[in-house]
Structures are given as structure tokens and as C-alpha cells.
Amino acid sequence: QKEVEQDPGPLSVPEGAIVSLNCTYSNSAFQYFMWYRQYSRKGPELLMYTYSSGNKEDGRFTAQVDKSSKYISLFIRDSQPSDSATYLCGLRADKLIFGTGTRLQVFP
Amino acid sequence: NAGVTQTPKFRVLKTGQSMTLLCAQDMNHEYMYWYRQDPGMGLRLIHYSVGEGTTAKGEVPDGYNVSRLKKQNFLLGLESAAPSQTSVYFCASSLGTKTGQPQHFGDGTRLSIL
Predict the structure, then answer these.
(1) Structural domain boundaries enclosing A55
(2) Less packed terminus of chain A by CB within 10 Å, N or C?
(3) How close, in Å, is residue A83 to chain B by CA atoms?
(4) Has residue A47 been placed in a domain?
(5) Nearest to A86 by CA among A52, A28, A38
(6) What is the least distance, in Å, from the CA of A77 to any CA of chain B?
(7) For residue B41, what is the nearest residue in chain A, using CA coordinates?
(8) For the segment A59-82, what is each residue's pLDDT rounded down to a tens digit?
């Protein structure tokens, strides 16, 4: 079993939709949780990070962590074509582990 | 504001050839990392460095060597390239490993081994 599981997609949604991206994990030692966005032929860039259960909001993005269920989510409100990218979750205990990424396509 | 710069951006090698990938950062970060990204495998850590003159093995170090002679540079070497090393290689740097000290990535080197 992988330490971090992430559906590869692709997830295709119309502009304006609410998008939910998720990762599940097996190691309860993970304490810090991150979401990276990666555009085609570019490196990952950090979107959000959190270290506690609950929600953290930044503009149209909300990161949610449920440590009891070992489940993290990234919600994107009012999705835009410019949000089309691959989204990777990152989880850190003594080392940083990445999910395989979910490819998101937002069409006009 | 360059951040993390990787050279070259693309390279094609023949099996058995050697090459060095260069990573440079201008953020005065202590930590530097080399990852490879393959379809369905995500980002996997090859080697990392916690400061000038130090290196350590990551998850998939075999077939690679690294050097950190200067704080701002981190070199990844392939001594005898194999087709299994065809991948996209990313360099990253960070101030440390605490919350609020995220890794900053370059735009990658696409390497094909024939």
C-alpha cells in the first residue's frame, strides 16, 4: 500500500464549478500537509500548507484536513480555465512525500 | 527574480553516456533536493543536501551522484546512463524543513536515454 493515494484523473469540469481534489494517507505520523499546483512543462509551485485538522482558506482555495480519517482535500471555488493544471498533495513527517497528482481541466 | 534555475532544459543521451545536471538557486537556501517525476509514480527524492559540502541519499539514489561544492549550486550526475533513467528531473530548494519553509522548484530537465 502506498503511503499517499491520489486519483490521477483527469477531472474535467466547466468554468465556475466547485472542484474537490483529495488525497488519502496511511501514516498517522504525517503532521504537515501541502498542496502544489503544476502547470504543463513547469515545476510544482506551493499553493497552500497547513498542519492542523480543519479548514484553511485562501481566496478561491480551501484546504481541508481530517486527521482522524487520514484524508485531505483541496476545494477550488468558481474554477477558471487558468486553474487547469496537475495538483499534487504533499505530506511531511520526517520526510516529504508527494501524491502522484490529479490532472484538472476546466473548460470555458 | 530567478529562484531555482535548471540547466539544460532538454537532453537526449545514449545508453552508457554520462552527463551532469546543474541546479542554481539565488534565495540563499540551505536545503537543496533532486527529484525525478515519472507517470504514475509522482515525485521521488533522489538525493538531497542540508548545506554546503553535504549530501544524503533519498528514496531512489542508485545510478546517481551529487555534489554541493557551493551553497547556491547542486549538481546531479549520471555516470553511465540507462533507459530506466529517462524521466523529468526537478531540483528544489528550501530554507529548512519547518512549516512555512516550503520547497521551491525549478522547471525541470527532460532527459531521454536511448
Answers:
(1) 4-101
(2) N
(3) 18
(4) yes
(5) A38
(6) 24
(7) A100
(8) 999 999 999 999 999 999 999 999
Domains in chain B, ordered, with CATH?
4-113 (2.60.40.10)
- Euclidean distance between CA atoms A25 and A91, whole angstroms: 9
Q: Is residue A78 part of a domain?
A: yes
**pLDDT tens, position by position, A39-66:** 999 999 999 988 888 899 999 999 999 9
Residue that the C-alpha cell 522548484 belongs to: B105
Q: Does any domain span residue A108?
A: no
Q: What is the CATH number of the domain that holds A21?
A: 2.60.40.10
Residue A47's SS3 state is strand
User: CB of A39 within 8 Å of any CB in chain B?
Assistant: no
